[in-house]
């Protein structure tokens, strides 16, 4: 799982990063609010650890902006200890709150507990399927796909192709197999039409075919989903 660590004190950030990496988490560091938002908008994360007293854009505003589009778990890390501060940040949308000075071991325990709760919550709805550590969600009733809690505007054909691939993660499908599985029997098309659909899906997921996070081309064979 990948964590965005937003802390302007580099010594503290590096210590926390080291503890997280020992627990096999992937960590991306940001030392100011602007960088944090840029990384959040360009990468996939499972949890954010956010200091409030950071430069350029304060932590409270960073959290406000993120909460406009995402319910990703957020742990506030701060020296503010007043009850009013804690209440206001829970009202904005943080999921947990830990004050400085703190024990890195306690922070790790809180991270793990919050990720467990988040995973359980995402699996409550039996009419959804989740992949990529919960960042990619299919609603089987509405046929809506969300990536990091943002709707991805797919056509029905694109939805069916993507769902077929991810329901069979790491299985390679030929173009002909995808046509037979996804479309009606009287669907009149040539197999290269699948390439166009895949190209459109990748564009909507911001998936780089040279370094794919979602759909990998298996040259000479077809495509497979990467979870």
Describe this structure in words.
This protein is of the alpha/beta class and 227 residues long. The protein folds into 2 domains: 2-122, Response regulator (Rossmann fold); 128-225, Orthogonal Bundle (Arc Repressor Mutant, subunit A). Helix content is 41%, strand content 21%. It has helices at 10-22, 33-42, 59-67, 83-92, 104-122, 156-167, 175-182, 193-205, and strands at residues 2-6, 26-30, 47-51, 74-78, 96-99, 128-131, 136-139, 144-147, 150-152, 215-218, 222-225. The strands form 3 sheets. It has a 5-stranded parallel β-sheet, sandwiched between helices. Strands 6-7-8-9 form a 4-stranded antiparallel β-sheet, with helices on one face. The protein has a two-stranded antiparallel ribbon with strand order 10-11. β1, α1 and β2 form a beta-alpha-beta unit. α2 runs parallel beside α3. The longest helix is centred in the middle third of the chain and has 19 residues, at 104-122. The N and C termini lie close together (12 Å). The mean pLDDT is 86.
